[in-house]
Design goal:
By secondary structure, the chain is an alpha/beta fold. It is 48% helix and 14% strand.
Length: 253
Amino acid sequence: MLWRIWFYILCALPVLVFFPLLALALLFPKGYGFLFWIARNIWAPFVLMGCGFWIQRLNALSKNDKTHIIIANHSSYMDIFVMLRLFKKPFVFVGKKELVKIPVFGYLYKRAAIMVDRSDKKSRFAVYGFAERVLKNNYSICLFPERDYEDEAVLLNPFNKGAFKMAITHQLPIIPLVFYDCKRKFPWYTTYGYPGSLRVKALKKIKVSGKKEDDLEKLLEASHKKIKKALLEDPKRAALSAIDLWKKINAKP
């Protein structure tokens, strides 16, 4: 519990310190690039190092000099900060609309991310319009495509279609990433987390050139299968051990 409180403090401090500057920057057409630089080079390392984490890249990421759709498994609040550290070229998150309610942070989030209320069909549809404007600015888009990802007992939830529909509509390649350790070391419920390295692996880029709407389900299933296979084949069994531990904790009377 103390570690979680410490995490929230670390998240809040840079936001409060840089808020006036970031709020001003977002008034300008290209202000997002500055906000991303602050988030990547100051906010993310401040939180990661402050919580005792460092990133271990298991292979080289493809050069992100072009626009992509970036996806990864989502099992921890730490995923956001890991993702920010992986790419120098700015990308825009697609995230939950509920985060707008967070004081101060919500003001920046509303203007910097593509928000979606997954329970609202109109909101889900509106995402594609926002995404088109983002892509015109030559920014990549990052999504965590899992549904109901906060269930600690599930290795990888089924994927939503949004990321793959965007990829096909705009003919953008998909970069699938695997976050091996966040589920074990900083789970949604931190009763059994601990500091250490957070391993990341980039899977082979998925090309969508020539694919159409009819290919969406196959593309979704293939992407899900690739990430799940990597998690299952992890020699350290990090995510699997997190599930085992969670079940043991909840099995106690």
